[in-house]
Design brief:
Number of domains: 1
Helix content: 10-25%
Distance between the termini: 24 Å
Number of strands: 10
CATH architecture: 4-Layer Sandwich
CATH class: Alpha Beta
Number of helices: 3
Structural class: alpha/beta
Strand order of the largest sheet: 3-2-1-9-10
Largest sheet: 5 strands, mixed
Radius of gyration: 14 Å
Order of helices and strands: EHEHEEEHEEEEE
Length: about 160
C-alpha cells in the first residue's frame, strides 16, 4: 500500500495536480493534513483515489475534524495539522505524546511548511512540508508512505 501525504496547499494545487496525474496508478490513498480542506475535496472529486483530510488553522467554518485516527492493515495512523500541539513553537513532544496515547504507529502533521521525518519513541513522525509554500529554506515537498506487511517505509520527496 502506498499513501501520498500532502499538507498546506493553501488553494494552490498546480503541483499537486501534476503529482496526482503522475502517481495516480501508484497510490492507494491521499492524506491531506489541512490548510485548505477545499483542496482535498477537489482531489476527492476529480480522482478515483480515497482522500482523507483533517482541518488546519486556516480552515475556518469547517465541519471536517482536526484529527483522524486511521487503521490501514495493522498500522494505526494519526493525522493532524499540528497547530493544536504547538509544533511551530516548541517541539513535537506534545504531538508524540498524543500519538502514544492513541496507539499510533505513524503520526502525520503539517502546519510548519517544513519537511520532517524521524522515528520518535518508536513512532514514525512525518511532516511532508508544502508543495505550494515551502518555508525555512526547504524546497516544495510531499510525503510517500509505503506499508508492506508489518514494515513502514516513509520518505519525503522534494519537488523536481
Amino acid at each position: 500500500m502506498r499513501i501520498l501525504v500532502l499538507s498546506d496547499t493553501h488553494r494552490s494545487l498546480n503541483r499537486a495536480l501534476l503529482l496526482m496525474n503522475e502517481l495516480i496508478y501508484e497510490i492507494d490513498y491521499v492524506f491531506h493534513l489541512g490548510d485548505n480542506t477545499e483542496d482535498a475535496e477537489f482531489l476527492r472529486e476529480h480522482y478515483n483515489t480515497p482522500v482523507v483530510c483533517v482541518s488546519g488553522n486556516c480552515d475556518s467554518d469547517c465541519s471536517i475534524k482536526d484529527e483522524e485516527l486511521i487503521t490501514l492493515g495493522n498500522k494505526k495512523i494519526l493525522l493532524t495539522h499540528g497547530h493544536k500541539y504547538g509544533v511551530k513553537y516548541d517541539s513535537t513532544d506534545r504531538l508524540v505524546y498524543r500519538a502514544l496515547e492513541v496507539g499510533a504507529d505513524i503520526c502525520l502533521f503539517g502546519h510548519t511548511h517544513i519537511p520532517f521525518l524521524g522515528v520518535i519513541r518508536g513512532i514514525v513522525v512525518m511532516n511532508p512540508g508544502s508543495l505550494s509554500l515551502p518555508r525555512g529554506g526547504s524546497n516544495a515537498s510531499y510525503g510517500i508512505i509505503k506499508i508492506e506487511d508489518n514494515d513502514i517505509y516513509p520518505s519525503i520527496v522534494e519537488w523536481r
